[in-house]
């Protein structure tokens, strides 16, 4: 990763040194994140880095969730040129085969180092990039953005405790929980506070400590599970291909560098807050015992195998994921 950042930075500096020979046009771009206003820090960091490194030639305005389009339509909107750049979750795009695997299937990786090994060391990023290209957008890169933990109204010390509850969860994580006997319900993130307050659900699986504090969910559910379902969740940065092809090479390099740095810098901040907040924001922090983690992992692998049936591309990605597992276990 450090070598990649260094290479990108060197390339960017070389292009910058030739600015007198390059097109000095200013590009005013619109970017939408799929996060609400309180959680668009990664996108804002990306925009700030791009502006600074380009000496103001890349001027990116960031819009929060739903301002220009809905989260599940960001890919379509970028493809159509309605927005120039999107930060989103692959699992939201029904047309993207590899989206669920890209963001992090349950129990897929335990830390950002493992995720980096999969994406960059084992070649998973190339599969993801090609899948996005096939859908008509240019893939700028991946961004680690959040931890993924269960928050509940009562303490959870085991799967038996969790089986007595109804948990808001979606996608592969919900499938895994169902397989171990935990009831789940799919509700919008904007409805989680009310659902917890009224007893519609007993817990949620949405993000990490900082997310739960920012959304005030820790006010109505005070118990946090330190066992990650996946860590980190992975987002993507995508750009309109016509715009991309028009950009000078130095601006392309800057955008790629900004995407990479924004994700890593944002996640570093997230991880710091994750541990600082655990003792402050919650009534209690618990963990699953080893035998329950083993049970979850076995159920997760079944979910992986089900996901692999979507296409040969996804199957190839799951193969890389299993290769990662064999390397880090």
From TrEMBL:
InterPro entries: DctP_fam, TRAP_DctP_sf
Matching Pfam families: DctP
Example GO BP: transmembrane transport
UniProt keyword annotations, A-Z: Signal
Organism taxonomic ancestry: Bacteria, Pseudomonadati, Thermodesulfobacteriota, Desulfobulbia, Desulfobulbales
The protein's name in its UniProt record: TRAP-type C4-dicarboxylate transport system, substrate-binding protein
Span of the signal peptide: 1-22
UniProt organism field: Desulforhopalus singaporensis
PANTHER family: EXTRACYTOPLASMIC SOLUTE RECEPTOR PROTEIN (PTHR33376:SF5), PTHR33376
SUPFAM superfamilies to which the protein is assigned, alphabetical: Periplasmic binding protein-like II
């Amino acid at each position: 990763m450090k070598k990649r950042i260094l290479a990108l930075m060197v390339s960017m500096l070389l292009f910058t040194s030739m600015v007198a020979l390059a097109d000095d046009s200013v590009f005013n771009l619109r970017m939408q994140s799929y996060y609400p206003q309180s959680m668009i820090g990664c996108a804002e960091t990306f925009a700030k880095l791009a502006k600074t490194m380009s000496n103001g030639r890349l001027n990116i305005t960031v819009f929060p969730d739903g301002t220009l389009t809905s989260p599940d339509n960001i890919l379509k909107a970028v493809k159509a040129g309605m927005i120039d750049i999107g930060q989103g979750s692959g699992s939201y795009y029904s047309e993207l085969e590899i989206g669920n695997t890209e963001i992090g299937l349950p129990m897929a990786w335990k830390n950002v180092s493992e995720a980096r090994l999969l994406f960059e060391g084992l070649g998973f990023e190339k599969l993801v990039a090609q899948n996005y290209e096939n859908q008509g957008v240019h893939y700028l890169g991946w961004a680690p953005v959040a931890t993924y933990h269960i928050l509940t109204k009562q303490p959870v010390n085991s799967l038996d405790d969790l089986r007595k509850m109804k948990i808001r969860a979606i996608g592969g994580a919900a499938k895994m929980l169902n397989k171990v006997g935990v009831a789940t319900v799919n509700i919008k993130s904007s409805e989680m506070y009310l659902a917890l307050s009224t007893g519609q659900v007993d817990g949620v699986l949405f993000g990490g400590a900082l997310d739960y504090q920012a959304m005030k969910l820790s006010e109505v559910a005070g118990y946090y599970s330190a066992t990650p379902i996946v860590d980190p969740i992975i987002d993507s940065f995508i750009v309109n291909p016509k715009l991309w092809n028009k950009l000078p090479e130095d601006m392309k390099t800057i955008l790629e560098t900004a995407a990479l740095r924004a994700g890593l810098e944002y996640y570093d901040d997230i991880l710091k807050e994750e541990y600082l907040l655990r003792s402050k924001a919650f009534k209690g922090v618990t963990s699953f015992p080893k035998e329950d983690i083993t049970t979850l992992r076995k159920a997760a692998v079944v979910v992986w195998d089900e996901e692999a049936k979507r296409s040969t591309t996804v199957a190839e990605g799951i193969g890389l994921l299993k290769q990662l597992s064999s390397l880090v276990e």
